[in-house]
User: What shape does this take?
Amino acid sequence: MTARTENTSFLSTIGLLLTYRCTIHCPHCFAEAGPGRKEKMALGSALGWIDEIAAYRNGCIRSVELTGGEPFFDLQTLALVSDHAMKAGLSITAATNAGWAGTLEQAILTLNELPGIRKISISTDVYHQQFIPDGHIHNAVIAAELLGRRYDITVTTESEQDEQYLKVMERLERIVDRRLIGTRITLPVGRALKAARSCKRKLSQEPSSRPCGSSVPLILPDGRLIACSGPMTAIHDPNPLSLGNLRRDSLSSILERAETNPLLHLIRVWGPHRMVSLLQSRGHGDLLPKEYLCGSSCDICSRLLCDKRLAEILNQILNEPENRNVIAYAQRQRLSNTETLHRYRVDGTGQIDATNALLQSDI
Ligand code: SF4
Assistant: This one.
């Protein structure tokens, strides 16, 4: 379960996946979380990594997202971790399925025990609702409002035209402002590869041009830091979006290296669809998938970056000096980030060929 991001810049937020345990077992879960999973982040590691997050570049990271699995599965750990993050000056969002909100009293009691958590990001959809009905979502939302906490809701579906999805949305819109509800497309990753309603998926020959929706780096219990809190967290190494491991390197050295990671910044600047157009322009169109899930930028990442050959070709192309420079300039133009330009010591666009493939059809 991941929290929904609000256009956060790459290094303003970091996520911690506290546990793979979950109170329920949804068939579309890409993390394959469930009641039987045991892996969790050791408390000492979580507190130490939060200290590193808070200290990085004099506090440039302002918030943490606590995710799972279901972080509310172990309330005591959630309270200790969120209190520690609050004392370190970080703002905290926790992802949840709202299974703890069976009654309004229970919901208020639970949130009262977690004063550090300023926002809850609730996941609900056709699958979650087989275990956790609308009433829980309503109770969690009212409790959050009464206690002055913020909230949003994410609904996952195979298709935005699916009737059951539309019914879930209709019911949610009766209790929550529409602007607080986001939609995600179910990806054939993790458990969803076999179990979700694949017949409902809508495919297209054109990759989605939507931007990346969750470029919040996420720390996994084993210490890996992935440059994505979406489905790429479920990919084993070699994972092209893995930035390093906090058990081996400090957070600051990993993040300093990430400043000049061209794949990461290409996805941030243009969105994953630019990987497709770049590979086509370099004559690799025959290696690309024939179709993509409609409306899902994450589907492009998981199809291209899980293919070792495509990932290697992309890596080679993106590390060509001119492409690195183009991405650095685009970071300045689009994200107001001049850090990479400084590192490459480039100061004029004279080093860039205007016919560079990355700049074509740059709308
Ligand atoms: S899979 Fe790609 S598009 Fe989706 S959140 Fe991760 S980096 Fe962004």
Notes: Residues 212-215, 228, 230-232, 267, 272, 297-298, 301 surround iron/sulfur cluster (CB under 6 Å). The longest strand covers residues 150-157.
